[in-house]
Design brief:
This protein is an alpha/beta fold. It is built from 15 helices and 16 strands. The structure holds 4'-deoxy-4'-aminopyridoxal-5'-phosphate. InterPro entries: Aminotrans_II_pyridoxalP_BS, Aminotransferase_I/II_large, AON_synthase_class-II, PyrdxlP-dep_Trfase, PyrdxlP-dep_Trfase_major, PyrdxlP-dep_Trfase_small.
Length: 418
């Protein structure tokens, strides 16, 4: 039969003239993976339902109170009373949705205030809010780097970055993860005079490791490239003011674009790009994922703006989140788990699993204990790894981190991982 790779030829080989081809044949290997996994008796890791959400760190799943260790709610802003109040007020004052594009009827006062909050947060000239972070990458990358331009990017980049490259039709030049020399070699091979965009992430979300931005941004600039950094997983947390790894590395003024999202530390949904480029505002007219979609609802931009302003001064929360990340990382390491990084580098601690079957069994055992983590598998993960990704929240208490470690110890022994 036609496998995933030969599916496109099915019309010529297997199917008689005039007979319809099944366009779903290409999903057969994924269907088989899912069927096999469920046959092993584990809970389905890809269809968990949060029946009630009690706080940034607790929810009811399968009727049981569960500690959440697999959300992107790093700063725990989702139930902040000021954030809730701002959203409620905007819902009452401006209605449930804008029913239009940012460039037509979809720019409300709240969208401007949200962009003001971002410009202040990053101390930058321009801010553009998109409906998701995915669309921010898709839009900025595809619009800035077009046919004939080159995008040099880390091989472990997020799907939204790859999709932005594909949509823009630029030449795509990947380099080995976090490898400064490999990046430099690729840059030097690009023909003289061609447009160059280097795309990096502050924190890589699968292993929770950070990029050597100080060195990389310098190499990019020395080779005449513009630089975009996706700070989705560091905003609000890393850097003195929470501006991300770019701030921590001291290269905030050297990057051309920062991409971010409201779906992680900010605690709602939406995406953005901030920049000091003098011509930045023209993007509002030429960036298709900005123009051809509806703008965010008023309640969402109001919660985002309030949350962003509070994150500017959230020094104590940042300190507690670093403490949580250090304790979980150290605790899991001493229990004998293999981790994605030697030292804690972010709020993400990735626990390496030997294979998908044991990863799913461990995920399931943790859920039985009352702990939710993210199960990540290829193609989202690098090097075919199966990972249990733990992401900490500034609202996890010291006691909760202790409970989490006890749960990992019991589940790890039961499944035979440690
Ligand atoms: N960039 C990175 C690095 C991400 O991890 C994500 C989401 N996981 C996004 C962008 C997209 O963000 P959003 O959820 O706002 O679409």
């Amino acid at each position: 039969g036609a496998g995933a790779s030969t599916g496109q030829l099915a019309g010529e080989t297997d199917v008689a003239a005039g007979e319809a081809t099944d366009l779903f044949t290409k999903f057969d290997s994924t269907i088989a993976m899912r069927t096999n996994l469920l046959a092993s008796g584990v809970d389905d890791p890809f269809s968990l339902v949060m029946e009630q959400v009690l706080s940034p760190t607790r929810a009811i799943c399968n009727g049981r109170e569960t500690i959440l260790l697999g959300t992107y709610n790093y700063m725990g802003m989702t139930f902040d009373p000021d954030v809730i109040a701002a959203g409620t007020q905007a819902l009452a004052d401006f209605g449930s949705g804008t029913t239009g594009s940012r460039v037509l009827n979809g720019t409300y006062q709240g969208h401007k205030e949200c962009e003001d909050a971002l410009r202040e947060f990053y101390d930058m000239e321009h801010a553009m809010v998109f409906s998701t972070g995915y669309q921010a990458n898709l839009g900025i990358i595809s619009t800035v780097a077009g046919k004939g331009d080159y995008v040099v990017l880390d091989i472990d980049s997020h799907a939204s970055i790859w999709d932005g490259c594909a949509m823009g039709n630029a030449e795509i030049v990947p380099f080995k993860h976090n490898d400064i020399e490999a990046m430099e070699k690729r840059l030097k091979r690009i023909p003289e005079g061609a447009g160059k965009l280097v795309v990096l992430e502050g924190v890589y979300s699968m292993l929770g490791d950070i990029a050597p931005l100080k060195e990389m941004v310098k190499v990019a600039k020395d080779n005449g490239a513009m630089v975009l950094v996706d700070e989705a997983h560091s905003m609000g947390f890393i850097g003195e003011h929470g501006r991300g790894v770019v701030e921590d590395a001291g290269v905030l003024d050297d990057v051309d674009f920062i991409i971010g999202t409201f779906s992680k530390s900010v605690g709602t949904v939406g995406g953005f790009c901030v920049s000091n480029h003098p011509k930045f505002e023209i993007l509002r007219l030429v960036c298709r994922p900005y123009v051809f979609t509806a703008s965010l609802p008023p309640s969402v931009v109001a919660t985002a703006a309030t949350s962003i302003r509070k994150l500017m001064t959230a020094t104590e929360k940042r300190a507690h989140l670093w403490k949580n990340s250090g304790r979980l990382h150290g605790g899991l390491k001493s229990l004998g788990f293999e981790l994605g990084t030697d030292e804690p580098q972010s709020a993400i601690v990735a626990v390496l699993m030997p294979d998908l079957e044991r990863g799913a069994a461990m995920w399931s055992a943790l859920l039985q204990e009352g702990l939710y983590v993210n199960l990540a598998r290829p193609p989202a993960t690098p090097a075919n790894m199966t990972l249990l990704r733990c992401s900490l929240c500034a609202e996890h208490s010291d006691e909760e981190v202790g409970e989490i470690l006890d749960m990992f110890e019991r589940a790890g022994k039961a499944v035979g991982i440690i």
